[in-house]
Structures are given as C-alpha cells and as structure tokens.
Design brief:
The protein is an alpha/beta fold. Among the domains are: about 45 residues, no CATH class; about 130 residues, no CATH class. Helix content is about 50%, strand content about 10%. The protein contains 23 helices and 11 strands. Strands 6, 7, 8, 9, 10 and 11 form a 6-stranded mixed β-sheet that branches. Helix 2 crosses helix 4 and helix 8 packs antiparallel against helix 15. The N terminus and C terminus are likely disordered. It is found in: Nucleus. GO terms for molecular function: DNA binding; protein dimerization activity; zinc ion binding. Homodimer.
C-alpha cells in the first residue's frame, strides 16, 4: 500500500503519486485531512494526524471512471497497468461489436442498453442511430482500404464465389467473395461486395455485379475462376457483356474452360434432398413413428423391451430430424432402419400406432441410406479439412461418381432406379467440373497424374485414355500460358543443395549474362545460347516425372509448394492459382448440410436499411473476424484494479 507524509503547514513534501492530479487535500479538524475528488467532489479518508491512509482506495476510485476527461488525454500508469478512457475509441469498439454480432443499429437507443453502458462508464456519451450508422460505414471504409493494399501485393490471381440473397420485396442482393493464396502461401477468402440488384435472377444481373466488383477492386486482369451455387445460371455468367469484357482483357485462362465452377457442397445437397423428397411418404411415416415412441418414457421403455425381445442390438438411438438439414434426416432413417422389426411388432401390439413402413418401404430406405452415406461421408471429409484447397475435392467427387454409376447398373430395380435418379444430377456436375478438379489434384505431389489415371480407368473403363489425355493436354496448355507471362526474378534453384543467390536488380534483369570479370564474357554468351537451343524438360514435365511424395497424415500442400517455389518458379504460379479455386462456397468451419439449395433470405430489418449500410455490415463483419484485435483484447481496453 502506498503511504505518504501528510501535508505540513511548515514544510510540504512533494506528493509523487498520480492520484494527486485528480484529488486535493482538505484539512477538516484536529489535524485530520481528507482527499477530495476534483470531479465528483466526493471525499475519502487520508490522514488522521498520526497515520496516513494511503492512496490505493483513491486509485480504485479513478479506475471506476470518476475522473476528469478534459483534454489533453493522459495515460495513468499504476503498477504497470494502463487505465485510459477514450470516447472515440469506445465508439469504434461499439460499432465493431454491432457489426460482428449482427446487433441492430437502434440498440444504441435502447434504454436498458444505455443504462448498462452508463453503469460501466458514466462519462461515455451514447450516440444515436444515425451517428452509429456513420461509425459503421467508417469501419467499413477503413478495412476496405486495408484490404485494397493487400490485394495490391497479391502475387497471383483471384477466384470469385457468387451467391444470391433475396428480400421480402422483389429486390435482391448478390454476394461476391474472393479466394486467393498470398505470398506466404496461405489461403484466404474475403467478401468483396454485397450489392443490391433489382432483379437478381435476370440475365445480366450477375454479369454487371462481377464487372463492377472487378473494377472497384482493381482486378480486371486477375480473375481466374467463378464459383456459383445452384441458383445461378451459367448463361448469366456467359452473357455477352461480361464475356466480351473479360476476353478483351485476355484474362480468361484456357479459353474460359475453367471459368465457371459449380459449388460441390450445393450439388451434394441437391442430390441428397431430391432423393429424400422422392420417398417423402416413407420419411413421413418414419418421422411419425419416432415421434410416437419418444412421446413418453413409458412408450420408450416398451419399445426398448420389444427391441430386446426381438434381439436388436440397439447400437443407435432413435432421433428426430430437422427437415431443412438432410444429414439429420439421413441419421434418423439410418437409426430407424436398425429397429424396423421392432416398429412392425409395435404396430401389432399397440392399437394407437399405425405408421410402420412396409417391407418394401424399408427396402427403399436401406438403398437410399446406402447412397446417402456416400454424400454424408464426403461432406464430413470436406468440413473437417482445415485448408480447403481445390485438390481435396477430386478424391471425393470421383468416388461418388463411380459408386452412383455402378449403382445404375445393378440388377436390383430398386437400387438401379434410385441410383439413376441421383446419378443424373451428379453426372452433370462431374461433366462440368471434372477438368478443374483433375487439374487441381495433379498439382498435389502425392498424386499428380496417377490418381487421375487410376480413377478414370474405373469410371470410364476402356475409354479412359481419351479422358486422361484431355486432362494432360489442358494442364500443359495452361502451363504454357503461364510460361508466356513475365516471371519475377527470384533466386535460382540448385538441386545439389548449393546456396541460392539473387543477381542484379530485382526489377531490372540483366540484359547480358552475368560475368565473373575473368574475360570470358563471350564464353558466357555461348553457354547461354547453348542452354536456349538445348531441348530441356519443362518444369511441369520434371514435376510430373518425379516420384510421388509419401501420403502422410497432416500433409500441408501449400507449405510443400512454398518450399519448392524456387525449384518450380513458373509452375508454382500456376499451382498458386489452381489451389485457390473455391470448389465449395461453404467456408471452413461452416456446415455444408445447412448451406441449402435456395436463395438465402435477408431479414426484414436489414432489408429496411439503405444498401450502402447493408453492404458495410456484411463485408465489415467478414473482414473483422480475421483481425487479431477481435480475438485478443487491446491492452488499453482492459482496466485491472489494484487491491
């Protein structure tokens, strides 16, 4: 505890504590003194004449906010801790809180919230809705400028995702996000725009939105691919305005063959939801059966006795589904399937229950669950992958394609009919996207062309060679397009492990070969000419011919290419763009099952806001989540009290 000599009428000792900038000492009687707060005039015991009370209780009073805010702002340090109140900084944090947690702007005028804030800091002056809206826009513009600077140094191209949002009105919004790999070989996805369009499903709506976004972010020449959900039509993307615009800028690689990518998560949802809908009557009976059993503990106990009597292991517990999440419907059917005999028996001994599916119904459920397991496992594999680079999707997609195709050939009519229904939809996705998926997996040093050759042989049989050739030819053609582009100077890769050196100016490559000053400049020119004329293997061919990297758990493909960037300077540019293709629009940490197949709907409150504010709220929320200050509190925002 801090102790100080009480003031004397004959000799005053200089008080060093910071508290005396906010307190004065007043003599009361009999030599006793009290400390009086300059702001609130409250007094505290200080000295009774013979004993000094100290200053710790005065510091606590300051920490609670009862001290002057007159400028200039001052920082007061107590035992190494910082105690600062900043009105503008508090506005900023309040705006960020509203953005990140999707609170309504008018919460700043809610009396209960205002009272709560005042109890924490009486000096904070609450703003109105209009002022907070301005603060939100300020956060948006500041973070946008930061992102613009990052994009300015982006070494490769960017791939876009396009999503549609509708409102209760006839208006809609188009959400544009960009995915890229940075100079440190880290994968990033950022929302770029959330734009209002009068007719989101019109022919030119997507074209105009993409064109505006590319211009606004100075990426006219950096577009690689566009990923769509199943609400967007390829015809919209290929509309003449956008197509001609991009073609004139020479931004489409492989003549646009990779331009449009369909969302893998959405095709899984479409196929799963459609096959469940095809047996909706049976699903209804199963749902009602589960409801009946779980309606009371007595029924659950009776059902358990029946299962035990029949000899059902009962490894799975009955569960009800959420109708909008097909994975829960699948799990409900799979668990019920184990108890099918118990449901049949229950119907014979309980007159109140008459929802048991028939034997044929259970047969259909069994087949549907077999195929749904493929989609369910594939979705879970994607969701549990931290870095969703494009290479991980080929292995999932080709297995689904193969199993569904084999199912269509089954002699069992129930199996073949259900498989045909599912395969018809997934096969269209496979035909549209197998090339981009294959190119991406070839860039995985654990597989290269070998997995393509293996899987295509199983899918296409005797015709596989022609399909494999298409992939191989397109990879080489794409590589040549990158060869024709200027390459930044970088240290030469020396396979023998020798040191790498950068010669000359990074921005101005030497016009003549480097010479050691030994008078053999002509000899250096001769060697350069020989190297040019000599037929050597390209980086791509060298990469493909080298042995595969072992398939170890936790393999980091981006880190592998980071380490081999110098060895394959041109190929790595192509790989950077290929791996950044967002094959799924559902980001890491989000549920594929909940992504749905219809347009997402903007709630009535946000629909009532002006479009600029809606865009600011959506984009800023996306950007702020990646800032360290949103996960680690600022040191100036924490007040630690000394006791």
């Amino acid at each position: 505890m801090d102790t100080e000599t009480a003031p004397s009428t004959t000799r005053r000792r200089r008080k060093k504590s910071m508290v005396w900038e906010h307190f004065t000492v007043e003599v009361v009687s009999n030599g006793c003194t009290r400390a009086c707060c300059k702001l609130c005039k409250q007094t505290f015991a200080y000295s009774n004449g013979s004993k000094v009370a100290g200053t710790s209780h005065l510091k606590r009073h300051i920490a609670l906010g009862s001290y002057t805010s007159d400028p200039p702002k001052k920082r007061y340090r107590t035992s190494g801790f910082v105690n600062v109140f900043d009105q503008e900084e508090s506005y900023l944090y309040l705006a960020k809180m509203i953005i990140v947690h999707e609170y309504p702007l008018h919460m700043v005028e809610n009396p209960a919230f205002v009272s709560f804030v005042q109890s924490l800091q009486p000096r904070f002056k609450m703003v109105d809705v209009n002022a907070m809206e301005g603060e939100v826009l300020s956060v948006y513009h500041k973070e946008k400028q930061n992102l613009m600077q990052i994009f300015g140094t982006m070494p490769g191209r960017i791939s876009l995702t396009i999503g549609l949002w509708t409102t209760s009105q006839t208006l809609g919004y188009i959400c544009v996000s960009g995915q890229y790999v940075d100079s440190d070989w880290k994968l990033h996805r950022r929302m770029l725009n959330f734009m209002l369009v009068s007719s989101p499903h019109s022919e030119n709506a997507l074209s105009e939105a993409i064109s505006v976004s590319l211009s606004e972010w100075n990426m006219k020449t950096k577009l690689f691919t566009i990923t769509l959900d199943n609400n967007c039509s390829s015809h919209d993307i290929y509309s003449s305005n956008l197509r001609d615009y991009l073609s004139n800028k020479n931004t489409l690689m492989l003549n646009g063959q990779l331009f449009v990518v369909r969302c893998y998560a959405n095709i899984l949802n479409v196929v799963a939801q459609d096959v469940i809908a095809s047996i909706h009557g049976i699903v209804y009976n199963i749902r009602e059966s589960v409801k009946f059993v779980k309606a009371s503990p007595a029924r659950e106990e009776k059902f358990a006795e029946i299962a035990l009597q029949i000899g059902i292991p009962g490894r799975k517990a009955l569960s009800l589904d959420v109708t909008t999440l097909w994975n829960t419907t699948y799990l409900m059917m799979e668990a019920a399937l184990e108890y099918k005999e118990a449901f049949t028996f229950l119907e014979t001994c309980d007159d109140n229950y008459n929802e048991a599916p028939s034997a044929d119904d259970w047969k259909k459920v069994e087949v549907v669950c077999t195929f749904l397991r493929l989609l369910y496992d594939s979705a879970n594999t994607i969701m549990t992958t931290i870095e969703q680079t494009a290479n991980i999707f080929f292995q999932e997609a080709w297995k689904v394609q193969l199993e569904l195709a084999n199912g269509t050939l089954s002699e069992d009519t129930v199996v073949s009919s259900i498989a045909k229904e599912m395969h018809e939809k997934f096969d269209k996705y496979w035909k549209d996207c197998s090339l981009v998926l294959a190119i991406s997996v070839v860039m995985d040093p654990r597989f290269k062309m070998k997995l393509v050759e293996f899987s295509f042989a199983k899918i296409y049989g005797e015709d596989s060679a022609s399909y494999i050739k298409v992939v191989n030819d397109n990879i080489h053609e794409l590589y040549l397009e990158y060869v024709s582009q200027p390459l930044q100077l970088m240290p030469a890769y020396v396979d023998q492990g020798e040191a790498n050196h950068m010669n000359g100016n990074d921005n101005n490559p030497p016009a003549t070969p480097n010479s050691t000053g030994d008078g053999l400049l002509d000899f250096d020119v001769y060697l350069s000419e020989m190297a040019v004329n000599q037929s050597t293997k390209s980086e791509l061919d060298q990469y493909l011919e080298e042995s595969l990297v072992p398939r170890i758990q936790g393999f980091d493909i981006l880190n592998w290419w980071k380490l081999n960037n110098l060895k394959y300077p041109t190929l790595s540019k192509m790989v950077r763009d290929a791996l950044a293709i967002p094959v799924s629009m559902v980001g890491t940490g989000c549920s594929i099952f909940g992504s749905g197949t219809g347009s997402r709907v903007l709630d009535d409150y946000r629909s009532s806001l002006c479009p600029e504010t809606v865009e600011a709220l959506f984009c800023a929320k996306d950007w702020l989540q990646y800032l360290p200050t949103m996960t680690e509190p600022s040191s100036t925002a924490i007040v630690k009290l000394e006791f």
